[in-house]
Every structure is written in structure tokens, then in C-alpha cells.
Design a protein that fits this description.
The protein has a domain at 29-77 and 221-298 and 400-458: FAD/NAD(P)-binding domain (3-Layer(bba) Sandwich). The protein is 32% helix and 22% strand. The protein is built from 17 helices and 23 strands. It has a seven-stranded mixed β-sheet. Strands 10-2-1-14-23 form a five-stranded parallel β-sheet, with helices on one face. It has a four-stranded mixed β-sheet with strand order 13-12-11-15, with no helix packed on it.
Length: 459
């Protein structure tokens, strides 16, 4: 299966001699924290997703007094399992571990996780109205051209930035190739190719260091692993604390939540999703610096959803990796593969404008998705389906979207501006603040938590 980390694999080989952007990144906990780092004050962390929890864990290991505020009723952020739907936990958010050279990979493995490669299987593409394997399409010149476009998209060197969609339409490829290209690039980056910066994905792909292998966790959920590895933090999280104001005019920062409760801290790490900052849900006094406001406007984050479909028998080809569609669902995959022998579950993975449309349909989105499968498999999807579940991240009040992506006019420089501390009091983490190509990933979020914790200690 092609996944985000593979999109530019060929391009990275071609561009091996190119100079990658100079960015700030932490590669290991040992490198990030010199032995003599310490901090005698207290730290407040806003947000109990991966970035916030990991920052809290690292600081608490060094004796720092830490409090974590979480707006929702549960920890984990965009790490969320669906239990009881099948005989295994289904990940509603981040599902694959992208790369083997990350702290996230090591954490899951060390917490008792059984990891299996997610790179096997045969991919199918809807081409000329039929689902055909990529092997059988290898002789189709139009499909080969589309594959080449995908491989070279992250090696863009043009003088002017543009969206992937604009670049595609100027390429002369047939309109039939558009859904495949959108699925492989736009959808994987959390949006559509008409909103995604070509220069931005090139820049991020060249900075990628996590590795080119992908994995799934087969024996438990990611949240279970987090609770095991960071058990010291879980008891320090106050849920239901919706932060409305951060006042950093004085020597200590005062944070006020929706219920009027006030918290004071010497330093505050803000890890809320990009959409929450964009919407102005948190009032900063004084206002955030202009470069940070500009950064918020020049990093994208939009609609994203997963539709989970349970069937009483499989009707798709044996060994299916991904199915790339040409309708409202850019990609399906077999969620139960490697996790269960007697449960049959598909995930429909939808981002961008297509997710916006399906979100508006409410529960009716399931019927639309089943009809797409019925058209390919002679009505068997509707015949064999037993239940469904929609995870619409756009409708989650404290998240409101999938994950961040580069827009035209943005780039890693905007992520750096978003990540920069303010007055040595406010620090920022979360996948959108990753400055070294790992945005939009669980390991990227974790790395930013590490970076923010280091900044608190070292500054």
C-alpha cells in the first residue's frame, strides 16, 4: 500500500544530493535533554493529545511540577480507539506508524505492542469504471503516467508555487487520472490536491527522516500503549477544562477556563489543534506576535473523516491493500487485515472537499459509500454490511479537522514561526508546529512535545 511516507520515495532518491531545509528537530530524548537541564517553576500544558502528554511526561521525569488541562472528557486527542465494534480495537484517528526511526515507534514497541508491516497487499484502482490491480494496469500508458506524476510531485523545483491540482491540470494527464492522483497525494496529506501546496510537500518530503516502512498495531490500541507508557501523566490531567484566555502580561501566566477557573504557571505549553488557534477560541493577552498570526493563516487544516464498515463476509479481492476510488471516497483499506481472522472491516478514508460533502450528509454518508462499493462489486457491500461507524473529526468541537497540510504561500518557515516561544513564557507544540517534515503524523506530534519540553528546560 502506498502511504504518505512512500509518496516521495522515488523523488527522494532522485533528490538525494539536494540540500534539505535547515530546521530544528529532536532525534532522540537523550540528545534533546542535556544532563544538567532542570526547571524549578511550574508548567501548565493546554491539551492532552500526544504532544501535551509527552511533554508532561518528560518534564515530570525531571521533577517539574506539571498540570495538564484538556477540553474534552478524554485524553489522546486524535488518538482514539473504537472498541466493541469488532474483536479488535479500531483506530479512529492515527492508524499507521510511519517510519521505524522515531520515538513513537519505540514507545509502542516497548509498551508491549505487536507491530506488523502495513506495506503489503495488492492495490486496486478504479480505472475505466472497474477496480483493477495496479499490476494489471501496468500496461496502461495513462496509468503509468499518473504513477510517474505521483512519484515526481515531491520533487518540484519550479520558480512559482502552485497547488498540486494546478500542476496536474497543466501536465496534460487525462481527467481519468485525477481521482488517483488526488487519493495518492491530496487525500494522504489531509486535504485535496486543489488545496495542497506543491512546493510545500516537496519541502516536507525532503526533510523526512522517520524511515520508509509503515506499521500497524495488532494487539491493542495506541491509547492503551500511551496509558501504559505515560501512566505518571494520566492522573495529572484535568478534563473538561476548556481554556478561553491566556494572559501573559505578568511574570506568571494566568490561564482562565470556560468555567472561570484560573490557573497560574511560570510557563505554558499550548498544544491545541491548529483549527482552535485559527478560530480564536483562546484569547491571548497581549495578542500573539504578528508572525505567529501570519503563520496561522498560512498553514492549512480541514475536514477529515473515517467511515468504518463491518461485513459478515469479505467481497473484495483476497490480499487487498488499498482500493483507490473515483467517487467520494479516495481510498478504502481492509482494517481487519492482520488483526482478525473472522471479522471483516473496511475503512473509507476521506479528506478535503469530499469529507466536507459527506459530513453534511450525516448518517446518510454511509449509504453513499456503500453505493460506491456496490457499483464495483455487484451490490455485495449493501448485501453483506452488518453495521457502520462514522468518525467525523470536523464535528469534534475541540479538534475540528484532520491534520495540518502546507498551502501555497506557506511552508516550513510558517511552521517554525508557529513553533517559536513567546517571551520565554508561552511554548507551542502539536503536529502543525513540526518544522522537519513530520507534520500530520503521530510521531511528529510527539517530537514537538519533546522539543517544547526541552525549550522550557533550556531557555
Amino acid at each position: 500500500m502506498l502511504r504518505r511516507t512512500f509518496l516521495g520515495q522515488s523523488a527522494r532518491i532522485l533528490a538525494a544530493s539536494a540540500t534539505a531545509p535547515q530546521v530544528i528537530a529532536c532525534t532522540s530524548t537523550e540528545e534533546a535533554f542535556p544532563d544538567n537541564t532542570s526547571f524549578s517553576g511550574n508548567v501548565l500544558i493546554i491539551g492532552a493529545g500526544i504532544a501535551g502528554l509527552y511533554a508532561a511526561h518528560l518534564l515530570m521525569q525531571r521533577g517539574v511540577d506539571v498540570t495538564v488541562l484538556e477540553a474534552s472528557t478524554h485524553i489522546g486527542g486524535r488518538i482514539r480507539p473504537l472498541t466493541g465494534f469488532a474483536d479488535f480495537a479500531i483506530e479512529l484517528g492515527a492508524e499507521e506508524i510511519h517510519g521505524q526511526r522515531t520515538e513513537w515507534y519505540k514507545l509502542i514497541a516497548s509498551a508491549g505492542g505487536i507491530l506488523q508491516s502495513a506495506d503489503g497487499g495488492t492495490d486496486y484502482v478504479v480505472w475505466n469504471g472497474q477496480a483493477r490491480s495496479d499490476d494489471t494496469l501496468s500496461g496502461d500508458s495513462g496509468f503509468r503516467a499518473a504513477q510517474t506524476f505521483v512519484e515526481q510531485a515531491t520533487n518540484y523545483s519550479g520558480a512559482t508555487d502552485q497547488t498540486v491540482g494546478q500542476y496536474f491540470r497543466a501536465s496534460g494527464l487525462s481527467a481519468q487520472a485525477a481521482p488517483f492522483v488526488n487519493a495518492q497525494i491530496g487525500n494522504e496529506y489531509g486535504t485535496s490536491m486543489d488545496r495542497l501546496s506543491l512546493r510545500g510537500i516537496t519541502e516536507e518530503d525532503r526533510a523526512w527522516t522517520a524511515g520508509d516502512r509503515n506499521f500497524i498495531l495488532t494487539n491493542r490500541s495506541y491509547l492503551d500503549s500511551i496509558r501504559t507508557a505515560w501512566s505518571d501523566v494520566v492522573g495529572r490531567v484535568t478534563t473538561g477544562a476548556v481554556v478561553r484566555e491566556v494572559d501573559y502580561r505578568n511574570s506568571q501566566v494566568t490561564v482562565t477556563d470556560q468555567q472561570g477557573r484560573k490557573y497560574t504557571a511560570d510557563r505554558v505549553i499550548i498544544t491545541v489543534p491548529l483549527t482552535i488557534l485559527k478560530a480564536g477560541d483562546i484569547q491571548f493577552t497581549p495578542a500573539l506576535p504578528s508572525d505567529k498570526i501570519s503563520a496561522l493563516s498560512n498553514i492549512g487544516m480541514g475536514a477529515g473523516m473515517k467511515l468504518i464498515l463491518h461485513f459478515n463476509r469479505p467481497f473484495w479481492p483476497e490480499g487487498l491493500g488499498s482500493l483507490y476510488g473515483n467517487g467520494y471516497v479516495p481510498e478504502f483499506w481492509v482494517t481487519s487485515a492482520g488483526r482478525s481472522q473472522n471479522q471483516f472491516v473496511l475503512t473509507a478514508f476521506v479528506m478535503g472537499e469530499k469529507a466536507e460533502f459527506l459530513s453534511q450528509q450525516g448518517s446518510g454518508a454511509t449509504e453513499i459509500v456503500l453505493k460506491e462499493l456496490d457499483a464495483l462489486y455487484a451490490g455485495r457491500a449493501s448485501q453483506f454490511v452488518t453495521k457502520s461507524y462514522i468518525m467525523d473529526w470536523t464535528k469534534e468541537p475541540f479538534i475540528r479537522g484532520a491534520y495540518s497540510f502546507p498551502v501555497v504561500g506557506g511552508g516550513l518557515v510558517m511552521r517554525q514561526a508557529l513553533a517559536n516561544p513567546v517571551q520565554n513564557k508561552l511554548f507551542f507544540a502539536g503536529e502543525a508546529t513540526h518544522t522537519a517534515g513530520h507534520s500530520g503524523t503521530a510521531h511528529g506530534a510527539m517530537e514537538t512535545g519533546q522539543r517544547a519540553a526541552r525549550e522550557v528546560l533550556v531557555n
